[in-house]
Design a protein that fits this description.
mainly alpha, YrhK domain-containing protein
C-alpha cells in the first residue's frame, strides 16, 4: 500500500502545485483593479500555500523514494 501511494504521490503534489500556481497568478492579476484587491489578497495567500504544499510534497516524495530504494 505504501509503495502504491509513493508511486501516485508525484501526480498529487504536481496537481496541488499547478493549482497553487494558477490561483496565485489569478490573484496577482486581480491586484490590477482596486475593487478586487481583497479577493486578490486571499487568492494570493491560498495560491502561495498550494505552491508550498507542492514543493513540500516533492521533497517528501524524493525522500521516500530514496528510502525505499535503499531497502
Amino acid at each position: 500500500m505504501i509503495k502504491a501511494f509513493v508511486r501516485e504521490f508525484p501526480t498529487v503534489h504536481l496537481v496541488i502545485g499547478v493549482a497553487g500556481n494558477l490561483v496565485f497568478f489569478v490573484g496577482s492579476v486581480l491586484f490590477v483593479w482596486h475593487s478586487t484587491e481583497l479577493l486578490a489578497i486571499w487568492l494570493f495567500i491560498v495560491g502561495s500555500f498550494g505552491m508550498l504544499l507542492g514543493a513540500v510534497g516533492q521533497a517528501l516524495y524524493l525522500h521516500e523514494r530514496h528510502r525505499l530504494s535503499t531497502e
